[in-house]
Amino acid sequence: MLQGWSDTLVECDLAFRMPDIFPSEICSWFVLTSTSTKYNVEESMRAVEYYVYLWRFGDFIEEVLQCSRILPDESCSRKHVWSYLKKYIYNLWNVLDWLSHLTLVVALFLRHFLQSEGQQYARNMFALSLLFIYLRFYETFLIYKIPGTTVIMVKEMLKDLYGFISFVLFVVLGVGMYYHANLWPDHQAMWGGSWSNFRLWTILSHPYWQIFGEIDLELLTGSNQDNCSNNRSIWEAVPSMERCPQQDWTVPVVAGLYMMFTNLLLVNIVIVQFRLKNLN
């Protein structure tokens, strides 16, 4: 009987996605207005919160029933089970479903167990779960000819994008290391403070945004001395305090070569790959 229910849910999955628009709007209302625990005293917000939890729990049960097809029976070989499991795992829509459930569970844990210090991270997780829910709605476009074709094309392009990201990651990391070593030489406090203050994000952020045209030339030339400190004792003791960059003429030169490489070569390579794939 469980197998029959799971088959029915899989076949009617697209039909059930359209009525989910209204619950997703309720979830949006909750995430935008009342993720803080101080709103729990309001009866209207509490009702909205419980409605969201009930809806997500029902969606979770649907996923569990769909996963029950993986369970072997007398007429199902181990090879068939593994084939279905692999197909289920590599399905983008299933991944989005489980990511939305996982982030919601993390958000609930942060909200109710860490109290005030975890509220910001809980809000981040609630919003991330909502983002996955909205991305999941793209599956409904598959029942239409033109939008469905577009969704399929985007999914195929993402496969090429994964390869591009893995390739460009080493370039971004290398250039970021060069920037940091010359703009902030002999920097010892690499992992001080909370994880959001780790210098790794500084190393990655500047070359990453330069791919999209954010040059930040004042920083690269060392002329931006606002909201920072040159006093070593201050920026080492206070991780949130930025250290002022030093001037090094080689940094703008490397930045110019890097941006020429990424904007004129790498990005155009990705565009050519997308076009060739569409032609094939």
From TrEMBL:
It comes from the Eukaryota. GO terms for cellular component: plasma membrane. The keyword Membrane applies. The chain crosses the membrane at residues 88-109, 121-141, 161-181, 249-272. GO terms for molecular function: ligand-gated calcium channel activity. InterPro entries: TRPM (IPR050927). The keyword Transmembrane applies. Keywords: Membrane, Transmembrane, Transmembrane helix. This is Ion transport domain-containing protein. It comes from Magallana gigas. The lineage of its organism: Eukaryota, Metazoa, Spiralia, Lophotrochozoa, Mollusca.
